[in-house]
User: Fold these one by one.
Assistant:
Number 1:
Amino acid sequence: MKRVSLGILCFLMSLLLFAAPIEVEFWHAHGGRLGEKVVAICEDFNRSQSEYKVIPVYKGSYYDTMTAGIAAFRAGKPPHILQVYEVGTATMMAAKGAIKPVYQLMAETREPFDPSVYLPAVTGYYTTSDGRMLSLPFNSSTPVLYYNKEAFKKAGLDPNKPPKTWPEVAEYARKLVQAGYKGGFSTAWMSWIHLENFSAWHNVPFGTLENGFGGLGTEFTFNGPLQVRHIQQLADWQKEKIFVYGGRTNKGNVLFSSEEVAMYTESSAGYAGFVGTCKFEFGVSMLPYWPDVPGAPQNSIIGGASLWVMNGRKDAEYKGVARFFSYLSKPEVQADWHQFTGYLPITKAAYELTKKQGFYDKNPGTDISVLQINLKPPTPNSKGIRFGYMPQVRELLDETFEDILAGKVTAKKGLDDAVRKGNELLRQFERVNR
Amino acid sequence: MQTQKAVFKGILLPYLLLLPQMVIIVVFFFWPAGQALMQSMFMQDPFGISKEFVGFENFENLFKNPEYLSSVGISFTFSFFVAGTALTVSLFLAMSASHVYKGELVYKTLIIWPYAVAPVVAGVLWMFLFNPTVGVVAWLLRQMGVTWNYLLDPIQAFALVVIAASWKQISYNFLFFIAGLQNIPNTLVEAAAIDGAGPTRRFWTVIFPLLSPTTFYLLVMNIIFSFFETFGIIHQVTQGGPGQATNIMVYKVYKDGYLGLDLGSSSAQSVILMIIVIVLTVLQFRFVERKVEY
């Protein structure tokens, strides 16, 4: 009898063990070292409590992850959490019924949630005009200027005085080319840095209706005189070797690390990569601006990705998602992620903690990104951008830049055409999301 | 009456034997093709929450879109150059193979090798050779005074993907040409030689016409290859750029559907590609299967 009851007890206990924890699926797009870090964060969360278990699943690139999430939703089995890159924001937002906004998730699960602890410059990108947070920023970055300190010395420039304005960049670049460098500066992510961020940084609109935050009936305006002037200037500089085009996405990074150019604009999250590949000392500074533009520099905007909660799973599981989001927002977790990856912290507390730990003093330049997005309170032109079919618009812009830089069209004509084609895409998006 | 015919007992067994093949065809061909046909008639958001039946509007939009038309043009030009290069070079190599006496096996093996390389890997190889910053060939070209930058120069980019794609297809063609050449009776060539025809004349009047069925078959296969299987190369080397210079149709399908999540237009483009393949296949069966023997 005793033995039987012991057996039953064991059986019941094992049932209990198998019943808990509730599993939460998290699809993300981080491979390599970043992927390992994501797994580590999830494991730490799983160890910190016993009710829920977050299972990270690496789904490939941002495109792969988003497409996989959408396909899973269509098949009726979406993951709980889906990481989506910033240009997919409008698509996710428009998918009412497919997603559960973060503010709603927190309210439904009665998870304590105070939106004011987050950095508005980061969360603003993923928040409605009336201040409701839709997705949780996870990995956000902003473009900064990297420069080769040793090259500056060789060219007789002060390695502690990076150029602040575009005319200064040109002047420095000429000296670098004279000192034997193949080119002055290059860039990654041309659309993101030289058009989207450029517009915010100079407080000019990229599109109407607060850069698309105000609704679907928006139109592009990135063919304004200032943008045209900047892109045309890049094309002209290219003839002088002041500027060198390095290809799409961040394929041009090799130009900087192999010392063909000595200045380079790239995401702040590229820092760790350059530490690994550059055999010289480099510095980080804020994006250059045109000094004759009133109010410039304003503040830069972010890129990267955020975490969206998908609809269609059980209520009990959403409690786990909410708990995980609270865990991710903790100052220690955020500060660690920020310091490890170079991505921006999402809360003020995480920034303060990093500062207190002396991280910025030990790694000069790593706070530039935070300072730059918070330089001034965001205006309707510098909160972010939110347009439908934005991935295609970026493709379109890449093609346009290549045509302009190859001298096939002028910047004016190229950007005018891009606005027209982009607006057609916006109308199409408005139509399918009515 | 029925002595020559093999007869199965019952009808179950033959159908059972056919079943696996049918299942594969239905699951991997008819079903997705049907889906594409259906989706090409709709405009919808990526999640499929709102769907609107639009008939042929997706197709109309495509044919009104200058970018799509330019992509069609690029595909045909690309196909012309890839098939042309791959066929000419491989025929030349196959003809030369008959003059190789020492190390014939090594020669043939080396030429067949690239066939085992996946298009994506082929793309990576060629990209590294020609990369303006780190590429060996790019460095050589610069030494020779050529300003090499396929990231901005559309003609250079186009040439690069044509070379990479042809290189990949040469092995396949080579195998078929070798087999085709072996089927030409030596007596015919010798008879022509005795009649005083030189090597060039013998090639054009005897060998080439007798080889034409193989050539035609390969032409169709190469066109299909350059339309579809070159995706990996384009994806690795140029992503369709610079500008739109190498944006072939199959790459545009991927860009609009996968990156842009515009399923309606992307499906319509797939249907158009499907029609092109069907036409090519019909052509091949009509002409090749009827007129020629291998």
Note: The mean pLDDT of chain B is 88.
Number 2:
Amino acid sequence: MTQFIELTINGLSLGSIYALIAFGFVLVYKATGIINFAHGSILLLGAYVAARTQADIGFWPAMLLGAASAATLAALVDVFIMRRLRGTEPNSLAILTLGIDIVIATDLIRRIGPDIFTSGAPWGSEVARVGDYVIPETRIAAASIAILIISAFFLAFRYSDWGVAMRAAATDGRTAALMGIRLNRLAAGAWALAGALAAVAGVFFVSFPSPGVDNATGLSALAAIPAAVIGGLDSLIGALVGGLIIGLVATYCAGYQDELSFLGRGLGEIAPYTVMLIVLLFRPAGLFGSRSVTRV
Amino acid sequence: MNATAQAADTSGAGPSTAGPILRVTDLHASYGDAGTALDGVSLEVAQGGIVAVLGNNGAGKSTLLRAISGTLPLESGRITGGSIEYEGREIAGKDPTTIVRGGVVQVPEGRRIFAGLTVDENLRAGGLATKDRSARGAARGRVFELFPRLEERLSQKGGLLSGGEQQMLAIGRALMSQPRLLLLDEPSLGLAPQIVEQIAEIVTEINRGGTSVVLVEQNAAMALRISTDAFVLESGRVGLSGRSADLAGSDEVRRRYLGVATEESAEAQAEESAAVTRPTHVLSTRRAEPKTLHAAGVTVRFGGITALEDVSFEVAPGTTHAIIGPNGAGKSTCLNVLTGVYRATSGNVSYGDTGLDTMRPHRIAALGIARTFQNLALSPETTVERNLLVGRHRLTKAGFVAAGLSLPSSRRELAAQIDHVHQVAEIVGLTGDLHRLVHELPYGVRKRVELGRALCAEPDVLLLDEPVAGMNAHESAEMSATIAELRAALGLTIVLVEHDMPFVMGLADRVTVLDFGEVIADGPPDEIQRDPAVLAAYLGTAGAGAETGGTT
């Protein structure tokens, strides 16, 4: 039972990080209708910049710098590449982002080489004991910061002018434009915000128990794709729930892998995709995705 | 207070009050390579005036509004020549946000409210271009003054409002940026006569507050009544223009747009329809004996709302039955029950001896019952031809394997189906549009695509949900002729829902009137037109006389 509770807490913490990444997918999808496969390399850039600079400027400033770099890169991709192709078939654009991902990731992996850069997180490998339970401090920090960001995000989406504009544009871009809402600016903002969230998630990803940024970090964002898809790709709540599900499943599978050994090793890595398949079999639009409902 | 703010805003632009608020000169526009949409349009809107823009579907009315509001590029169109001066400044080619901030706002065709957002959020979205918060507050107050209904429904989702309320929300949303020039695209589309009256009053009221209006309308009677000047577009050019009162009196306008049958026009139209021989035989290949369509005590509830309450009617084989009533009366629900989209909570529907209540929609379609949809259920990114081919689905034998592998048999079949589709296109007048994408087509033409698709299924019973919405009197008369001809040639049984009274009264053998989900009258058209309950609930006393003159 102790193990189960510990795994659950770890899983929820990991899940909240996945949720941050999944938010990025959902934001870009809502604003532009594109699934952004370059999200992983943007996350890698953020984590890389933060890890490279933390020794000189300290952890928190480095994290901000990482987030700023990732946001800038994402916005540049939107302004200089995607904006010119607005109106092109979204599937073609999604493939284009795959290409962009390969270009960015290749350059970063070349820079990282065989090195591993630690995140320099102040809590390192410390653990906290709560009663009988042992929880790594990283997990607590990750979960608290993620909850903070997610709440701010939900409030903004629900109540701010920006949120109303985003939702209006996601429902019907052409009509939103008639109201004087600037679609290009919204799209660039969504890309930038997605980048910043990915960078923050990236920094936690490379903190304990991970040794640091290495050339495989970008791949970790891939596990957030099932999270976004399970949730429904166009729903923020969905991304949150999907992220938590993926975090829990991955953690349980890793934690109980001895008991689950009849299914083979490395179950944790494929579990997110298995869950995604099962969910999609029963709910093709995801758990919270808007099925195209029309009045006939 | 806003008047002074606005005056200060434009003081740099010179004497803006003297000239017209809008002057369009020799405007040309086109979409991609689909040809010219506007071919030299010139018009003026006086300060504080209401200008009506009339014309057939595809004449360029919506394109004109999009050009003014700067949203043509979003529909992959562009202005290729000419100028648009607003308050003395050139705005052609400016981005939509700049134009909205300048005080020009367009209310799009079909309302296009944000269905998932609340009424409150819809209004906020309309005010986002205004940075000044107190101005936003003032605009909001004005909107609630005009539409007290919206204030009552602030926290409701926009998609749950009735058609009339949605139109009010669409107008209210546009007013949130305090426009000095309001562009309205078909505000009466799909609305019951009484609501159209309300919308007309509201437009007049908005205009009285100092906002100039460009009103694109298919309801020419209403548009000419409330406007000062009018322009008639024909194939991207201004065909006629003048004072609205003068135009309303001209024979040409009366015949084409007001549906008033003058003696010569009746003759001309008789000749016209005699000249067209439609290849209706292609639709009569395999035909079972038509049966009676019967609804008995049908009640439909959604959650706590009763959409239909104990509704009964009978449609005899080969007759045309109209269902009319105010927006939200349950007309579309009726059609949805007949086609198996909704299930009756109690009561039953049958076709001949076959009960339809428990059948899935595709099985009902297989019985030879085809329909069209009020809100257009077409694939916008595919061609008209492809959309019509969908209608052939139930008569196509090749399975997905044969079709996927493009086996000779399936290729032959496809060729035959396409041939059939082309003949149907000729009947409904779509031959020239077969290879255009649906989203490029004007609303009224899309309606014809829907009719064509339903006909492609070679139905015995045709259910038509607002077949002439978005069409002017002339086009609606043409559609009426087409349907009458189909009915005569094929012995079709037709059930139709429509607000266009000349159309309904000219075609229907029997009319059922719904109000609040209940049948308030049922009988032949001439009886219905005199029924006091119907006049009160739906037609309005003024509307009834004026709108029934023009049947063909």
Note: The first strand of chain A starts at residue 127 and ends at 130.
Number 3:
Amino acid sequence: MTVPFNWSLALPEIVLSVCGLLILVIGVFQRKNASGLLCTGLAVAAFVATAVLVLGAPSGVGYRGTFVSDDFARFAKLLALTGAALSVILSLDYNGRQKVDRFEFPVLILFSTVGTMLMASSENLMTLYVGLELQSLAIYILCAFARDEVTSSEAGLKYFVLGSLASGLLLYGISLVYGFAGTMEYGGLRAALSDNAPVPAGLVIGIVFVFVGLAFKLSAAPFHMWTPDVYQGAPTSVTAFMAGAPKVAAFALLLRIMAGPFGHLAPQWQMLVELVAICTMILGALAAIPQTNIKRLMAYSSIGHMGYAMIGVAVGTEAGVRGTLVYLATYLFMTVGVFACIMAMRRNGRPLDRISDLSGLSRTHPLLALTMGIFMFSMAGVPPFSGFFGKLMVFAAAVQSGLWTLAVIGVVTSMIGLYYYWRVVKVMYFDAPEPAFDRGARPVGAVAGAMGLVTALFLLVLGPVTGAAQAAAAVLFR
Amino acid sequence: MLSLGLLFGTAVFAPLLGAIIAGLFGRVIGDAASRIVTIALMVLASVCAVAALATGLDSGSQAIAVPVSTWVQAGGFHASWQLRFDTLSASMVTMVTVISTLIHLYSVGYMAHEKTPVSRFFAYLSLFSFAMLMLVSSDNLIQLFFGWEGVGLASYLLIGYWFDRPSANAAAVKAFVVNRVADLFFMVGIALVFLQFGTVAYDNIFALVPAHASSVYHLFGSDLRAYEVIGVLLFIGAAGKSAQLFLHTWLPDAMEGPTPVSALIHAATMVTAGVFLMARMSPLLEYAPVAKDVVLFIGATTCFFAATVGLVQPDIKRTIAYSTCSQLGYMFMAAGCGVYQAAMFHLTTHACFKALLFLSAGSVIHALHGEQDMFRMGGLWRKLPVTYAAVWAGALALGGIPPFAGWWSKDAIIDGAFVAGGLGLYGWVLGVAVAFLTALYSWRMLFLVFHGRPRVPELADHAHESPFVMTLPLVILGIAAVVAGWLLYPYYVGERQAAYWNGAIFNGAENHVLANLDQLPALITLVPTIAAFLGLGAAVVFYVLKPELPGRLAASMRPLYLFLLNKWYFDELYDLIFVRPYRALARVLWHGADEGIVDGSATGLARLTAGGSAQIVRIQTGSIAVYAFTMLIGLLALCSVFLFFG
């Protein structure tokens, strides 16, 4: 609050927004039948430049206390930018083959990412809402991007209707909080809640509404029901994006407001988060079992992962937040990698998404099968892959705080999860081979391979990632 | 010294080489080559063993260690691969290699009609011999245990050699399991030895024995002398291998193996291991009088039990098997009396005539194409003259008719029991009774098989004398059965025994049994011989003069006859006490614990999971209204929880 109007704090967001506008203009003046290569390349360049700016951004609060830049925000932003850049790279080939390679695609992802970054940096419930809406609106459009396809349109519409409901709940919650606390700034809220006066019921209801609004974005049970339908219906390039960066942002937001303004009510909302986390883990594990569609399977898998990551939120300690951040980092890479593999599933020009299409992949595409296998093992939490360390950290945090129920349910659902992850491996390695897939594109293979390497060798970067997550978590508890 | 070590080492390891060559490469080099290699190496081993024994006796030195390599070096526990050369081990090695060589040779003829390649059989035979050699030549208890277990393994393989016969497999498993039970006690005994002395090497143990004589174990509120406990445990181990009472049930069943195997088990390897262990551990046993009494009692009882059972068995091999069991009882009786020398003496002479008898029985069975029932034989002496002569030699030796081998050694034991006094008198009474029974069942067998008229003419008509490779061992062993006692008596128990054993066998300061053997009244020493002649006479009456008498006797004393025929009902008793309860328990654990609880919980959980997943997927209808409704329900639930419990 020392400098009321410090432009430089939001420099990365400003640069990214301007880049988005520029690319839009360039796209408009392009020839009608030009490929999306130029705009995609520019978008990736913009992401990289923004990431560099994020790394060098100063810390502080600006814009009359609506915007904050700190280690936590930077950690979340870097993850979001990485996820967005990777999904843009992946989308190029897929969209081209699906004939949906319009230049708006990277621009929409770019604006969605701006919203994500705003969310991570929010210091005011209004910033939160604006960022969330900016991100969501872009994704609504993206879901319906393959507008000639019924499933894509349906997915967009479903997500839009339910998302609007969630936004309404969130907005209603914010207004309740404002009504009872008299402020929307996190600092003010924190101060208002820290005195020992009894908390008014309206404020409590407001907090629940806000939580529910965010839980919808996280696809936590029982607000998850849109996830499988939308993941399956949307173009895979969009699903790859949706499953990554926005989740990270929503988590960043949840962590920030739960630990920040509502931190003093932790004993009360902890049970809430615990309850939702347990529901989410159990649902993610059980509902995935009968799935035959790989995208739907990944939707439930992502629901389950959100449940595990939520354990760190429920714990509400620094170790818990660190665990969640590490979990999100590993989750992001695994998810992008899996969707890269799914994009490689294509026969005679048509995309495939049934699990049985993977039969005997180890013989037709040994490298692809190996990479997919790594992701499956990692998602199941098998050491030494990255997924193991994320799980280990959140479970350890839960045990340290005495939340045995969470840890035990987490372990049990992980074991159930083994079943459907390993079923994919079994199909790839032990079933009779299907005909080979079409030749894949370089970038997709490269991203899948790189993500596979990161996942398999995560042990090597475990130290730095944990260190950064630790620094980010420390900010919230200062 | 080097040459002695080399000779001794060759004697021990040559059979191993044979086993490896024939076992691993038998298919490659063929049956004939396998036979030649194993036999050649056995001959080499025998020659080396004899040479080593002669050299060692010449040099007159005490125990010599022949290091092979280190084995275990863990903290305070040391065990090395090291051979121990002293008279005890050398005489055992000589006996084992020579007998085993003859049995190898005999097997060439006996196994000639096998349909499958016999390289495996010869490999097992050599392995069996090697394990036994390892056992007797070891320098510490751990290495002895290695050989001990090797013997168990090889016996299992050989008893079950005809693996397509269920009865052979059952017998092999039975032998292995009974031995394992005994081995458990043996292992505890070894562990206690290590705890007591901090070492498993013989030299160190024997040096420390006098110092620890007073240590006790406190167990169940009573004080047990450590040596008594160790002694009894080691004896139980020995009783398992040597088929003493309560652990003898495997031995008759082991007849399921080919006859050369029976000969090997009963003469050279396996069953003599227990007797050897008693002699080897004599420095410790001499300090454990109660344990010695246990040995004496069980030995004498086994001796009597087995002889009575052997009296009524119709199967030629089983008769000889029970005879072995009985003779081993004599040996343990001697060990229990403290005359280990006599035990070793009887062990050696018994090896000669028991191998002879088994090989002869094999020759008869071979001639009759597998017939083993003596009541289907008869009048074979014209057809099988060499075998007939061999059985006569064996029967004379076994029956204890002077001056044949058994007479010397058995008399030494029976006299020793009388001299020892106390419980020894129990042994003496039974020993004399058994001398009578032994002669009776020996000639019962001989007369039933070779005399009278053929009971099944078509079998006898086709009988023919065995080939030369089978009769040669019979002749050699027959000569040994005649002269071994007379030749070896001075060395084993006679005036030159102290020089011969040269400290390998220890007799306590108060143990004068051996020294006083000669001072027995002549009448007492004559009693066993008289008993043996009476037995021979009875056999002549029962089976030559009045062949209808045994049947009438059996009919008039039917309960007793059945009791003996069914081997004192030991198998049935064990079945009742151990096998059935164990099986019932296993069944409960299988159906109840494993299938019910372990599997049940797993399948139950799986069913629960599958059911849960089916329910959850059911609500995923695709309808936005349902989704929104679910969200609102969730919101309501969370609000309620937060308001009422938060």
Note: The interface with chain B takes residues 158, 161-162, 165-166, 169, 201, 204-205, 207-209, 211-212, 216, 221-223, 225-226, 228-229, 268-269, 271-272, 275-276, 282-283, 286-290, 416 of chain A (CB under 8 Å).
